[in-house]
Design the sequence.
């Protein structure tokens, strides 16, 4: 393949309803010694995560995430070399606006893909750990198998930590208090009811607007900065959540959320990295004890379950299924080029 995206092959998965488009071949070389450095290369000098500079690889991203080959809700990743021999491979996560630092549902999809494709050998019955280097660090997707079939994936994230509680934010829906946590990316959490909203499909336009306003209001807040790596700074997603009736006694809380990320994109899943953030905040509130499970629903009714381990480590479990393999073409005289967004 040339450095322009005339032909791109992908394998597509979904994790709890959220798409993930995997590109693992025919990519131009990406300079850098680590995944984080390669991400900076792709973003380009003078570019930002949400506004990368034009280039051969970003042409591929735009081709795959824009109509008529994709859509504004598409998510995906470029498979790249690992930082060292401790991981099976690395990945650059992307969406309609640019490149993210973390993606829990994508990690689940990649784990399932690595096993289903034979890239990582796995037993017919039992578990296998797929180690993946992502821009925020090294994560693990433990793939669960039974009778030769992948039945689920558990995503173990980088450490999650709370950075601020009850940050006052004014929105067009009223003033609210927002909690902030870093879980590979920075997430802001707010109860939907505090905005006069619920977490239903009918409320999505208002939830997106509220999420965008909260993200903009927190753009310069010190708690959004990552002390260890400034490349992980800034609010990536806003989690608007609602409590649901708890499961049986001792099993932990139940919540439904709508996560609005990037520039108004809606996570169809309960959000893997966002679930990590919710786990840390619920533990800080005394609502989640070791051994308890958070049952986390999405706006489409799919579920992730999560639990908190010592040291701020979180595990989130869900399912990931292949939806197709594709060979996308950009015809030489197609005047739409890499496509458009609505």
Sequence:
């Amino acid at each position: 393949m040339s450095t322009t995206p005339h032909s791109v092959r992908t394998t597509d998965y979904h994790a709890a309803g959220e798409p993930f488009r995997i590109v693992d071949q025919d990519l131009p070389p990406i300079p850098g010694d680590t995944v984080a450095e390669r991400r900076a290369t792709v973003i380009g000098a003078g570019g930002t995560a949400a506004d990368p500079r034009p280039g051969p690889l970003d042409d591929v991203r735009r081709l795959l995430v824009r109509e008529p080959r994709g859509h504004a809700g598409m998510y995906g990743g470029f498979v790249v070399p690992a930082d060292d021999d401790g991981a099976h491979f690395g990945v650059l996560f992307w969406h309609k606006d640019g490149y993210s630092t973390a993606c829990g549902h994508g990690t689940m999809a990649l784990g399932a893909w690595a096993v289903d494709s034979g890239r990582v050998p796995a037993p017919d019955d039992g578990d296998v750990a797929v180690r993946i280097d992502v821009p925020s660090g090294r994560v693990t997707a433990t793939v669960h198998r039974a009778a030769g079939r992948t039945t689920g994936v558990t995503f173990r994230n980088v450490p999650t930590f709370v950075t601020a509680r009850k940050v006052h934010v004014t929105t067009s829906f009223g003033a609210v208090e927002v909690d902030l946590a870093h879980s590979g990316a920075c997430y802001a959490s707010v109860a939907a009811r505090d905005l006069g909203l619920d977490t239903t499909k009918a409320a999505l336009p208002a939830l997106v607007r509220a999420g965008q306003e909260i993200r903009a209001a927190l753009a310069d807040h010190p708690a959004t900065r990552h002390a260890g790596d400034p490349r992980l700074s800034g609010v990536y997603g806003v989690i608007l959540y609602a409590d649901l009736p708890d499961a049986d006694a001792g099993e932990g809380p139940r919540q439904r959320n709508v996560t609005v990320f990037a520039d108004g994109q809606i996570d169809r899943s309960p959000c893997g990295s966002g679930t990590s953030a919710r786990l840390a905040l619920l533990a800080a509130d005394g609502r989640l004890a070791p051994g308890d499970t958070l049952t986390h629903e999405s706006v489409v009714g799919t579920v992730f379950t999560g639990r908190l381990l010592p040291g701020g480590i979180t595990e989130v479990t869900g399912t990931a299924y292949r939806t197709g393999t594709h060979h996308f073409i950009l015809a030489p005289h197609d005047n739409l080029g890499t496509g458009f967004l609505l």
In short: DSSP finds five helices and 18 strands in the chain. Helices lie at 35-43, 56-65, 104-116, 204-217, 272-284.
